[in-house]
Amino acid sequence: MTAHIIDGKAFAAGLGDRIAEGAAAFADRTGRAPGLAVVLVGSDPASEIYVRSKGLMARKLGMESFEHTLPAETTQDTLMALIAELNANEAVDGILVQLPLPDHLDSLQVIEAIDPAKDVDGLHPLSAGYLASGLPGLVSCTPLGCLMLLKDQLGSLSGLDAIVVGRSILVGKPMAQLLLAENCTVTMAHSRTADLAEKVGKADIVVAAVGRAEMIKGDWIKDGATVIDVGTSRVIRDGQKYLVGDVDFAAASEKARAITPVPGGVGPMTIMTLMHNTLIAAYRRKNYPVPELGA
Ligand SMILES: NC(=O)C1=CN([C@@H]2O[C@H](COP(=O)(O)OP(=O)(O)OC[C@H]3O[C@@H](n4cnc5c(N)ncnc54)[C@H](OP(=O)(O)O)[C@@H]3O)[C@@H](O)[C@H]2O)C=CC1
Ligand SMILES: Nc1nc(=O)c2c([nH]1)NC[C@@H]1CN(c3ccc(C(=O)N[C@@H](CCC(=O)O)C(=O)O)cc3)C=[N+]21
């Protein structure tokens, strides 16, 4: 089987059109655009690129973007004061603190300080708890984007065997919860998992979120499986720079029914689901019914 290549960029663009309509309707009704605040501490070049693209996308869709770039030596107190200010700011509907923070900062304390109603990254322990309890809350952007792509490919996921490789708070854990809520039978794999290849080989759905270039080999994949590759690693081959996923894309494409490429798969969806979450947060904070975004 030669896999269908899932076009995350195109799917994200379609979702973006509906988000822009929702943002315009919100602005008509309230006199202000939905607002997203992104906080970056320090100057990691990759993070700067993501933060800039989030700001650009917010403006493109008719939202307001508040960008706060703080020096690497920012103190915990300064960062906590900024979060308090953003929580209190009526024009801010969503707050994202780009991770990882410099080592001297306590990320959990920062995340716990974010108003859960504005937690568009779904990182607050309350957001994680809502998700695990099946209650409405904000869901981490990357897993939400992966789920949208999976449902678009497969329709119902009920009864399928899924494996999530990686168990981070940002990606692996919420991904597993979303798949469980869709009635998949979910295996969560991590660095201590025994016989990973064999476990991957039983799955109808493989979500890889590890961050190790091409660690999942093509011949591990079950014939006809759907493969979602979250990982992004920068590698240099023959003097050329490449961004590659956690899955050996060429070999896995021979086995899978559908697979996401890197770049152009999950990455563009992460940015768009952040916009989706910001729009939802804006409507919910006003107690307005959330518009149908068709995803
Ligand atoms: N495209 C996108 O939109 C996004 C991409 N990413 C990318 O996804 C990747 C994962 O991100 P994130 O979840 O934050 O990463 P983390 O580093 O927080 O987590 C990595 C996970 O992979 C597990 N792991 C490490 N080595 C192995 C191994 N040999 N076999 C199986 N599991 C292993 C770890 O296990 P253990 O818990 O045991 O240590 C851990 O649970 C990164 O490449 C990141 O850049 C992340 C967010 C968004
Ligand atoms: N609080 C927090 N929330 C995050 O969601 C978060 C974070 N911290 N820290 C870092 C990771 C990483 N991440 C990506 C977002 C977009 C692309 C993306 O758009 N990638 C493009 C390629 C971009 C390129 O070429 O570099 C693609 O895959 O097509 C990738 C990775 C969000 N993260």
From TrEMBL:
Domain of life: Bacteria
Domain Tetrahydrofolate dehydrogenase/cyclohydrolase NAD(P)-binding: 140-284
GO biological process, one term: L-histidine biosynthetic process
GO cellular component: cytosol
Pathway: One-carbon metabolism; tetrahydrofolate interconversion
Presence of keyword Lipid biosynthesis: no
Catalytic activity: (6R)-5,10-methylene-5,6,7,8-tetrahydrofolate + NADP(+) = (6R)-5,10-methenyltetrahydrofolate + NADPH; (6R)-5,10-methenyltetrahydrofolate + H2O = (6R)-10-formyltetrahydrofolate + H(+)
CDD domains: NAD_bind_m-THF_DH_Cyclohyd
Molecular-function GO terms, alphabetical: methenyltetrahydrofolate cyclohydrolase activity; methylenetetrahydrofolate dehydrogenase (NADP+) activity
Function statement: Catalyzes the oxidation of 5,10-methylenetetrahydrofolate to 5,10-methenyltetrahydrofolate and then the hydrolysis of 5,10-methenyltetrahydrofolate to 10-formyltetrahydrofolate.
Subunit and partners: Homodimer.
HAMAP family: THF_DHG_CYH
Identification of the protein by name: Bifunctional protein FolD
Gene that encodes it: folD
